[in-house]
């Protein structure tokens, strides 16, 4: 896979809900082989942006391209090349883990034999083999999150979009997911993840985008972001707070004093 | 100890009041933020309930006066007073058992599935207060409902029998304490069951049987008629009923003491009255306290299983070796090639993989969730009941009398194609659920379909099949059954089958079209999913469509009877016109909503 080609391209992306503008003129690229971290405070527009990238939400204006396909004009091609892990793993509760993956294989029109093989592999990798024949409603939150990741990886996507993938996971599972994402990127896939855990973003991501009140306030590598911040702001936390809400932080500290 | 929080109080009642106030606030907020139409509806419903209570009170008073009349005694042949004295016993027994059973489901919900128990138990409120509040929350609606029927009857009885003034407040006190005792026992029962089975599964099974029971109860009248039992009651039957009820009023059952004690007090038999009422009140209070303490201990100690869902099996899990991701990379996945698709099974040639996948998934989901099954089984029950009724009334078109030949021929034709009508009626009920809510049933899982590369046409085709195939199977089942019993000819049967298949196809198209346009994905309980106003409109339209489509197929047969033309012409014209119209209805709505599928779930 060519790692210089942008696999996710957003141009002047806008999403309005009535008078409220959730996403304002957001433009960025994510290249193949790159892990891109998408940060922002609660309600900043992260999930809305993600939903527009994976084709769950129609932008008010602007374009999104995934693997070179316009998500609005060529939705099937764009969706066929991407995998999505939502923040809340709403999965079909009455399907077993194995049945869920078989269903996903059918949705992506994959060869049945390969689906069976891939299912076994993914279940083993994600430590779900023992629960493979249990229905999803008997899974813990972490297991559902992993099942959701397995579903997103079924068709070996070129673009993987994850909304808060490590929330509610134990350290072992969180590490496993981080390893998988890194390996996906090494194989040339574009990994786009939103997270609140700045340590994950700082350690894992090649580039980071920070969104605040619907606007993309910064994009770049850690080095580039440091150059944007004030002198002395060396950690991502400092940069993030500086860009999104230093004043609020001081106010919180005052309340908790 | 936090710097801001005050020292928590151990007093139960203020804490219970605090929690009940929260519940009231939630209800009040729900009312405040509801649409004006709904607010008016709620007010009217409450006023209606009040009027209903007044009506029951008046009727009880009049009825009980009538029961004491000498004319009735003469007619029935026995003294009615002992029966009247058994009325409170009956009502209190019904109240106790009713609360015990009806609270079970609500308590299961509030203790295990509502999700706020952890929040409440972790706050500085006495655990007992939380439990008392939960019990009250569970029993209050049912208590209100039972009181609505029971209190007016008990007070009506008191007035008609000129009972002592003490009778009235004690009726209320006994009702409250019996209710609390029943709720306490119900809470213990919930915990024993939740220890044995996953709470969510128990809730599903309970929902299934409750729905089944409701349908059967609502159809008792029809069932009785179907089996040919007369609903007229003779004096002898009334006599037997009175005897049975009086036999039930034995002093050996503790549940009877409440009613017997209150009647004794009402009749100023002070000693036995006070003894029985005090015994009832004491036993109820002790039962409530013991049950509450035990349930609380079972819950808090974890005995009753805090987990909502238990795993089916616990097998030994082996850890994957480090760096196993490389193993998965051995063979990259790719979409199936044309050659592979060509060698797929013959079904695959007609149905693309996503369509097959969605159909398979939906059938699994429908069959595994008992809450769905309760909705799906009702058409079957209604079908059986109405088929039985149909057979009873279908015998009327024998002989001719003074009617012209064509009239009797037409009536016989109508009776012959009654099998079609019955199959369509059953199909209509099933399609209302399967087709009208085909998209809504996806709920919060819809993102999986929306984020997948599935064409809207494939999605619609899959949903169409999921609704159509079982409906056609059920409709055909009724058609075959009734046709065999009617002994109709193979030709008529085939035409009936064509009529059923095409009418269901058209109806499916209409319902799916409207259900798609009004799809609602925001629900937690499948019983609360709906297809919105547009879905209702679809249901309404199919009520018009069904007789029209049925008429198009069957109408020409009447015409040929009328004009004495060959029967074949009727089949030919009816078949062609019917197929064209129903086929159009099957396809047109789906074609119209196809564009909308892309944008579903974005609100």
Entry keywords:
heterodimer, A: 257 residues, alpha/beta, Rossmann fold, six-stranded mixed sheet, four-stranded antiparallel sheet, 10 helices, 40% helix, B: 603 residues, 24 helices
Tell me about this structure.
The complex is a heterodimer of chains A (257) and B (603). Chain A is built from 10 helices and 10 strands. Chain A is an alpha/beta fold and 257 residues long. Chain A folds into 2 domains: 1-81 and 157-222, 3-Layer(aba) Sandwich (Rossmann fold), CATH 3.40.50; 88-156, no CATH class. In chain A, helix 3 (97-107) crosses helix 4 (112-125) and helix 3 (97-107) packs parallel to helix 5. The mean pLDDT of chain A is 87. With 603 residues, chain B is an all-alpha fold. Chain B is globular, with a radius of gyration of 31 Å. Chain B has 2 domains: 12-221 and 241-301, no CATH class; 353-393 and 404-597, no CATH class.
In short:
With 257 residues, chain A is an alpha/beta fold.
Topology of helices and strands:
The complex is a heterodimer of chains A (257) and B (603).
Chain A lengths: L5 E12 L2 E12 L3 E5 L6 H8 L7 E6 L2 E2 L4 H6 L1 E4 L11 H11 L4 H14 L15 H13 L5 E5 L7 H16 L3 E5 L3 H7 L2 E6 L2 E6 L1 H7 L7 H9 L1 H11 L1
Parallel strand pairs in A: 3-8, 3-9, 6-7, 7-8
Antiparallel strand pairs in A: 1-2, 1-4, 4-5, 9-10
Helix pairs in contact in A: 3-4, 3-5
Chain B lengths: L11 H21 L3 H32 L2 H7 L4 H33 L3 H6 L4 H34 L6 H30 L2 H20 L1 H7 L8 H14 L5 H13 L3 H32 L23 H4 L9 H5 L3 H5 L2 H16 L1 H25 L10 H12 L1 H17 L11 H5 L5 H31 L3 H28 L14 H31 L4 H31 L6
Helix pairs in contact in B: 1-6, 2-6, 4-6, 4-7, 4-8, 4-10, 4-11, 6-7, 7-11, 7-12, 8-17, 9-17, 11-12, 16-21, 17-19, 18-23, 19-21, 19-22, 19-23, 21-22, 21-24, 22-23, 22-24, 23-24
């Amino acid at each position: 896979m060519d790692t210089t080609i942008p696999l996710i391209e957003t141009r002047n992306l806008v999403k309005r809900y009535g008078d409220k503008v959730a996403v304002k003129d957001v433009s960025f690229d994510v290249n193949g082989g790159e892990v891109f971290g998408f940060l922002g405070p609660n309600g900043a527009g992260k999930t809305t942006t993600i939903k527009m990238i994976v084709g769950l939400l129609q932008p008010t204006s602007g374009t999104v391209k995934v693997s070179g396909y316009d998500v609005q004009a060529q939705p099937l091609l764009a969706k066929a090349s991407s995998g999505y892990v939502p923040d809340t793993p709403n999965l079909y509760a009455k399907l077993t883990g194995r049945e869920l993956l078989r269903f996903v294989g059918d949705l992506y029109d994959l060869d049945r034999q390969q689906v069976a093989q891939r299912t076994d592999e993914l279940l083993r990798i994600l430590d779900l083999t023992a629960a493979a024949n249990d229905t999803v409603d008997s899974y813990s939150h972490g297991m559902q999150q992993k099942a959701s990741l397995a579903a997103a990886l079924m068709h070996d996507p070129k673009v993987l979009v994850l909304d808060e993938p490590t929330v509610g996971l134990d350290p072992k599972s969180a590490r496993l997911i981080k390893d998988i994402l890194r390996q996906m990127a090494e194989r040339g896939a574009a990994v786009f993840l939103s997270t609140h855990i700045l340590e994950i973003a700082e350690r894992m991501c090649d580039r980071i985008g920070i969104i605040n009140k619907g606007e993309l306030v910064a994009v770049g590598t850690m080095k580039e972001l440091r150059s944007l911040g004030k002198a002395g702001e060396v950690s991502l936390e400092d940069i993030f707070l500086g860009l999104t809400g230093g004043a609020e932080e001081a106010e919180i500290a005052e309340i908790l004093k | 100890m936090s710097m801001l929080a005050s020292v928590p109080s151990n007093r139960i009642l203020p804490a219970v009041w605090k929690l009940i106030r929260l519940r009231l606030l939630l209800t009040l907020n729900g009312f405040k933020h509801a649409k004006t139409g709904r607010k008016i509806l709620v007010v009217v419903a409450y006023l209606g309930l009040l009027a209903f209570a007044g009506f029951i009170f008046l009727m009880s008073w009049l009825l009980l006066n009538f029961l004491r009349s000498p004319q009735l005694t003469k007619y029935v042949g026995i003294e009615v007073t002992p029966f009247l004295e058994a009325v409170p016993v009956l009502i209190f027994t019904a109240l106790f058992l009713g609360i015990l059973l009806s609270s079970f489901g609500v308590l299961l919900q509030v203790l295990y599935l509502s999700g706020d128990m952890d929040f409440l138990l972790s706050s500085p409120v006495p655990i007992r207060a939380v439990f008392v509040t939960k019990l009250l929350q569970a029993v209050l609606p049912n208590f209100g409902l039972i009181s609505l029927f029971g209190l007016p009857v008990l007070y009506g009885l008191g007035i008609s029998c000129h009972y002592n003034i003490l009778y009235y407040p004690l009726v209320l006190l006994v009702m409250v304490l019996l209710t609390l005792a029943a709720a306490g026992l119900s809470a213990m029962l919930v915990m024993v069951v939740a220890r044995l089975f996953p709470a969510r599964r128990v809730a599903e099974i309970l929902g299934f049987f409750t729905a089944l029971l409701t349908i059967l109860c609502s159809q008792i009248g029809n069932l009785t008629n179907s089996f040919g039992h007369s609903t007229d009651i003779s004096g002898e039957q009334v006599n037997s009923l009175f005897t049975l009820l009086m036999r039930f009023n034995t002093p050996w059952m503790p549940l009877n003491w409440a009613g017997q004690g209150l009647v004794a007090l009402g009749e100023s038999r002070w000693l036995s009255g006070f003894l029985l009422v005090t015994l009832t009140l004491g036993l109820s209070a002790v039962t409530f306290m013991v049950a509450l303490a035990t349930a609380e201990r079972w819950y808090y100690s974890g005995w009753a299983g805090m987990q909502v869902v238990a795993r089916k099996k616990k097998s030994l899990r082996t850890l994957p070796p480090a760096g196993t991701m490389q193993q998965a990379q051995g063979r990259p996945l790719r979409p199936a090639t044309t050659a592979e698709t060509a060698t797929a099974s013959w079904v695959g040639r007609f149905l693309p993989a996503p369509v097959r996948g969605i159909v398979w998934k939906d059938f699994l989901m429908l069959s595994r969730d008992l809450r769905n099954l309760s909705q799906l089984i009702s058409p079957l029950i209604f079908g059986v009941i109405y088929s039985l009724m149909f057979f009873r009334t279908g015998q009327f078109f024998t002989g001719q009398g003074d009617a012209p030949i064509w009239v009797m021929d037409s009536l016989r034709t109508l009776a012959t194609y009654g099998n079609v009508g019955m199959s369509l009626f059953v199909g209509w009920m099933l399609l209302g659920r399967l087709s009208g809510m085909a998209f809504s049933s996806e709920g919060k899982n819809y993102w999986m379909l929306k984020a997948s590369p599935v064409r809207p046409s494939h999605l619609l085709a899959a949903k169409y099949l999921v609704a159509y195939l079982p409906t056609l199977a059920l409709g055909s089942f009724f058609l075959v059954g009734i046709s065999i019993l009617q002994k109709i000819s193979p030709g008529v049967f085939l035409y009936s089958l064509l009529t059923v298949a095409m009418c269901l196809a058209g109806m499916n198209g209409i319902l799916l079209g409207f259900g798609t346009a009004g799809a609602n994905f925001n629900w937690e309980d499948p019983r609360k999913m709906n297809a919105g106003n547009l879905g209702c409109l679809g249901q309404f339209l199919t009520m018009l469509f069904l007789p029209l489509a049925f008429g198009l197929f069957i109408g020409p047969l009447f015409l040929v009877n009328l004009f004495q033309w060959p029967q074949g012409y009727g089949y030919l014209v009816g078949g062609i016109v019917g197929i064209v119209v129903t086929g159009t209805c099957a396809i047109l709505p789906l074609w119209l909503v196809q564009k909308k599928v892309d944008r579903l779930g974005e609100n």
